[in-house]
Amino acid sequence: MKSMITCFEDLSNEILYDIFEFFDSYDIYEIFSNLNNRFYYLIIHSSLPLKLNFSFLSKTTFQHRYNTILMSNIHRIISLQFSNHLLIDYFFTSFSFDSSFIRLEILTLHNTKFDTLISILTTLPFLPRLYSLIITIIEKIRSPDDIYCLIIRLPVLKYCKLSFELWNRNINLPLNNDEYSYIEHLIINTKCNLDQLNNFLIYLPNLNHLSCEISTLNSKQINMSIISKHFVKLCLKLEDTSFDEFEWCISCFSHQLQSLSISTQRDIEFLNADRWEKLILCQIPHLRRFNFRHQIITDENMIDYSRYHLLIDKFKSSFWTNRQWFFTHQHYKLKDFTSWIIFYSIQPYRYKN
């Protein structure tokens, strides 16, 4: 019986498109466009979506890609990624976002400058399909107010990830009461106090996933707005927050919360299993996934080892095991010679199969 050999060139267009999904569009152009006439027309004269990554390019290489593929294919671009503020500046002196970028869905701007970012954000409402926005600002900024306001006004945005450092954590958004965002998934990689966070979240009624770092220093016990009824997933990093403050904070989030990931430090009350059980049963009864990490300095003057082990042993009760929530701990030492213990979740359900 003769074996059948299939050549790459004989694959159907549909299969080739699936393969191309794993490549940057310029690499597809360079590798395949000169293979034969069929591939040339498939790549150059088709509606194949383009994903362009301009990260870590020299200006010369960028200009070549700009001239060979970008200029004539704006209408096909679904994803743009930059990681160099000089290339970002260069690109946006040549282009402004308008309806010609009719298919652009994902925009990633790493290491951009604040003033450049504001100019870009003002043009984004013209993009009818922009649902994902990732931003990293290279410099420390005084206030995120302008950024938040412009993001809230993006008409179809669903996913937003923001990374920056702040001089000032105060926030005052000059928005109308009837303005709101369609964002469903928000990641803020900077330390927020609760009142600042609240002033942003009130404009996100569709939010279902939030990841952020919260500080309770200088935060008032405000009446936070209850988060969207769609809210189901929360990831928190807490460094200077006590368990008492966390309890008050979590009460502001949806009763429907199903997934909680939390990283804490120092306050040993976070290792009070009985208190966690009461909190989960009363405040977040629908919780299905719980990822917990707590670090504490092991200086002999600061921690009683016997008490520590009595506390963590209580996380082995049926309340935890019945939910398939398991934990372990380990010791480690930093370069400054401070010793820590870390108590953290392990998740055997990831390895069932």
In words, what does this structure look like?
By secondary structure, the chain is an alpha/beta fold. It has two domains: 1-48; 49-297, Leucine-rich repeat, LRR (right-handed beta-alpha superhelix) (Alpha-Beta Horseshoe). 29% of the residues lie in helices and 23% in strands. It has helices at 13-20, 25-32, 37-44, 59-70, 85-94, 114-121, 145-152, 194-201, 243-250, 273-283, 305-313, 318-321; strands spanning 50-53, 77-82, 106-112, 132-137, 159-163, 185-193, 209-215, 233-238, 259-265, 289-297, 326-333, 339-346. A twelve-stranded mixed beta sheet has the order 1-2-3-4-5-6-7-8-9-10-12-11. A hairpin with a 5-residue loop joins strand 11 (326-333) and strand 12. The chain starts with 12 loop residues before the first helix and ends in a 7-residue tail after the last strand.
